[in-house]
Write a structure and sequence with these properties.
- The protein folds into two domains: about 220 residues, P-loop containing nucleotide triphosphate hydrolases (Rossmann fold, 3-Layer(aba) Sandwich), CATH 3.40.50.300; about 70 residues, Alpha-Beta Plaits (2-Layer Sandwich), CATH 3.30.70.270.
- Strands 6-7-8-3-9-10 form a six-stranded mixed sheet, with helices on both faces. The protein has a four-stranded antiparallel sheet with strand order 2-1-4-5. Strands 12-13-11-14 form a four-stranded antiparallel sheet.
- It starts with a strand and ends with a helix.
- It has ten helices and 14 strands.
């Protein structure tokens, strides 16, 4: 399948000498939800701004749905909707008017049926005649999405879509994003909420200090880099791990009341059965046990902290 966005060797160095992006290569598939993760200052917003034609790259090439963003900027930009992190809109304007204006801005003819469809999808139809200043933060965020969708883009960028939104509205937004994907829109989101990427994304890219550290399918990433831990609640606290268990990846926690064993979920033999036999031989008894797998957040932190 031909990617809907192809990014080749894109870099950005500002006049002061700061390098925000270093030779980024990335392909985004048509119809997927792609999450770009990274700490503040990693280069997420810079990359989005370049793709959307807001910032010029220092080098490289970007093709958006068949159009070069530098040589065919207007055609490329018509394919893209952007919901920025900051809420920028005219507070005194009515909801329906600001969405109409955004559609006209890209040269699309007035289409009241399409505007109504977008506002209804976003639960904004009942608010269509209200001034934006009267809306809650969550509703203002929905208006920004409506504006971005007004010209029927094939690609939608969401820059920190859940910033300042409460948990309930965040989950509503996730459902809305999934529905957009089902309608054929490719979604690229940047987020600080690892839960958001873990819940929604098909693939995840991790960016740190202007470099794309890793790109992979979310499930594959968790299988390859995720670890499982077996936690044993001991009958009697241990002061130290017995010498006879030194060849296992064990650590004590909770003042010696818990023994934690880390193992590779992809290994043919996790070693758990042998460990339990060895514990019995060493006279170490336990009253309960449970396993848990690394979250995407654990993986993200380990990847970013490993960078020099």
């Amino acid at each position: 399948m031909q990617p809907i966005i192809s990014i080749r060797n894109v870099s950005k160095t500002y006049k002061g000498g700061f390098t925000a992006l270093k030779s980024v290569d990335l392909e985004i598939n048509r119809g997927e939800i792609f999450a770009l993760l990274g700490p503040n200052g990693a280069g997420k917003t810079t990359l989005i701004s370049i793709i959307c034609g807001i910032v010029n790259p220092s080098g490289g090439e970007i093709i958006a749905d068949g159009h070069n963003i530098l040589t065919e900027q207007r055609l490329a930009r018509k394919k893209i909707g952007l919901v920025p992190q900051e809420l920028h809109t005219d507070a005194f304007e009515r909801v329906i008017d600001t969405v109409r204006f955004s559609r006209g801005l890209f040269g699309f003819p007035r289409d009241e049926a399409k505007i109504e469809e977008i506002l209804r999808k976003l639960s904004l139809w009942e608010k269509r005649n209200e001034k934006i200043m009267a809306l809650s933060g969550g509703m203002k965020r929905r208006v920004m999405i409506a504006k971005a969708l007004a010209h029927e883009p094939k690609i939608l960028f969401l820059d920190e879509p859940s910033a300042g939104v409460d948990v309930e509205l965040r989950r509503d937004m996730w459902e809305m994003v999934r529905a957009l994907r089902e309608s054929g829109v490719t979604i690229i989101l940047t987020t600080h909420y690892i839960e958001e990427a873990e819940e929604m994304a098909d693939r995840v890219g991790v960016i740190s200090k202007g470099e794309l550290v890793l790109v992979d399918e979310k499930n594959s990433l968790m299988k390859k880099l995720g670890k499982k831990q077996l936690t044993l609640d001991l009958q009697t606290p241990l002061a130290a791990i017995p010498a006879g268990l030194g060849d296992y990846a064990l650590e004590l926690a909770d003042e010696g009341r818990k023994l934690i064993y880390s193992f590779d979920t992809q290994a043919d033999d996790t070693g758990i059965a042998m460990l339990l036999r060895r514990l019995n031989e060493q006279g170490v008894d336990f009253k309960d046990l449970n396993t848990e797998q690394s979250s995407l957040e654990d993986i993200f932190v380990s990847l970013v902290s490993a960078r020099p």
